[in-house]
Design goal:
447 residues; alpha/beta; Glutaconate Coenzyme A-transferase; 2 domains; globular
């Protein structure tokens, strides 16, 4: 049987494909821009027929019909490996969104060995190539593990999906696919970086001055890491490399500016290595069939011992709040879940392990609400706040008031260093709190 004959034999409508899903099934919806669209609409039509269909997702970028038609979660139970804005909207509307805590580099193993067996995997893919492969597009992550674990695999073809070269585990052969759906070819999610603020630019300046020529750059999500990337593009730095979990628009600008040669990388020299991409068409057009880029599963990109094979690895990530003991919370505000652990812990570890490497966790020193300064450097984390980076792991903390390296410092030194980069309006209160907790010395002087 030829590849085209096999394709035609497996080609079905979305409504036909989702008939394989039964009440009680565990299914995977795809990740990032690979989350299904036409199949989502088709499954939503079956709400009254189904109960307790448990769905896995990772960074849901689209409005989902199954959640719109089932606001209480009786038919479709939504699970997330990492919250997105879409997930937060679902939760805010009153539907449970069940998060699973991960160390992102370990996720493929969780899927292969720990989670309940998947009855059905559904994901958006590129059109089949002449060899019979469907490329996963810009979301290698744990996708191959999902298709291996699933009893039934359904692919939804999107002609707008960029074809992302590996690496490895970047696609699936038609022989491993049970059903093919030709989707509506919707555009990929457009997720531009937020506008740069003065605070972002100040934080970026503190970090960029720590970056040497030949460094390898990892950027997390958000305005501050993006500000670093844009500042690098305008800098005199040269021969930088890319080894990251998430590829964003800023990397395109760094590449166009001639900064990102990859010539000094310890592994994958000259390649921009990533496991997923989220941004705008500027990014998606750049990665499409681009041999400069190499997409890998997340147990390669995020494994600290692998990432750290690149000397001078500079990792830059965000935080929600940090306490005076040096504990970093980057995923919740108290018990209100915001995002997830993702790969931050992986890259904080990798930055330290890399020869000459540094890891930076950055945030504004405070939020201003109704004219009141609310510090994000706090005596202790809010009750229920999640420790993303333990105090023994986190190193450089950066705000618009400076940076402080915590590794090897005593509790009073950490308190002093963190208070020095807190908002000036709250420093006296933080000193009093440190005194009450026994982590302040009378000889301390604030700069």
């Amino acid at each position: 049987m030829s590849l085209l004959e096999e394709y035609r034999r497996k080609l079905v409508s979305p409504d036909e494909a989702v008939k394989v899903i039964k009440s009680g099934d565990w299914i995977d919806y795809g990740s990032f821009c690979g989350q299904v669209r036409a199949l989502d609409k088709a499954l939503a039509k079956r709400k009254d027929e189904l109960r307790d269909v448990k769905i896995w997702s990772c960074v849901n970028p689209y409005p989902t019909e199954v959640n719109a038609v089932d606001p209480t979660g009786e038919s479709f139970v939504w699970h997330s490996w990492h919250f997105s804005g879409g997930d937060r909207k679902i939760a805010k509307a009153g539907k449970p969104v069940y998060y699973s805590s991960i160390k992102y580099s370990e996720l493929p193993r969780y899927v292969r060995e720990r989670i309940e067996p998947l009855d059905v995997a559904m994901l958006q893919v590129c059109p089949m190539d002449k060899h019979g492969y469907f490329n996963f597009g810009p979301q290698c992550t744990h996708t191959k593990a999902v298709t291996e674990r699933a009893k039934i695999v359904i692919v939804e073809v999107n002609e707008k999906m960029p074809r992302c070269l590996g690496g490895y585990e970047e696609g699936i052969h038609i022989s491993e696919v049970d059903y093919i759906v030709e989707g509506e070819n919707p555009p990929l999610a457009q997720i531009p970086a937020p506008p740069l603020t003065e605070v972002d630019q100040k934080v970026a300046q503190y970090i960029v001055e720590e970056i040497p020529d030949g460094a390898c750059i990892q950027l997390g999500i958000g305005g501050m890491p993006n500000a670093v990337g844009m500042m690098i593009a305008d800098s005199d730095l040269k021969d930088l490399g890319c080894h990251t979990e998430m590829l964003v628009d800023a990397y395109v600008y760094m590449h166009r500016a001639g900064k990102m040669t990859g010539a000094k990388k310890g592994i994958d020299p000259y390649k921009m290595v990533y496991t997923f991409a989220l941004g705008t068409n500027i990014l998606y057009e750049f990665i499409d069939e681009n041999p400069k880029c190499a997409i890998y599963p997340v147990n390669y990109t995020n494994k600290p011992s692998i990432a750290a094979m690149n000397d001078n690895l500079i990792t830059i990530n965000n935080a929600v709040e940090i306490d005076l003991f040096g504990q970093v919370c980057s995923e919740s505000s108290g018990t209100r879940h915001i995002s997830g652990t993702g790969g931050q812990l992986d890259f904080v570890l990798a930055g330290w392990e890399s020869r000459g490497g540094k890891s930076f966790v950055c945030m504004p020193s405070a939020n201003v609400r109704d004219g009141k300064v609310v510090s994000r450097i706090v005596p202790t984390l809010k009750p229920g706040g999640i420790v993303t980076d333990p105090r023994s792991v986190a190193d450089y903390i950066v705000t618009e008031y400076g940076k402080y390296a915590m590794k090897g410092m005593s509790v009073w030194q950490r308190a002093e260093g963190l208070i020095n980069i807190a908002h000036p309006d709250v420093r006296d209160d933080l000193v009093k709190a440190a005194q009450s907790m026994g982590i302040w010395r009378r000889s301390n002087k604030l700069t």
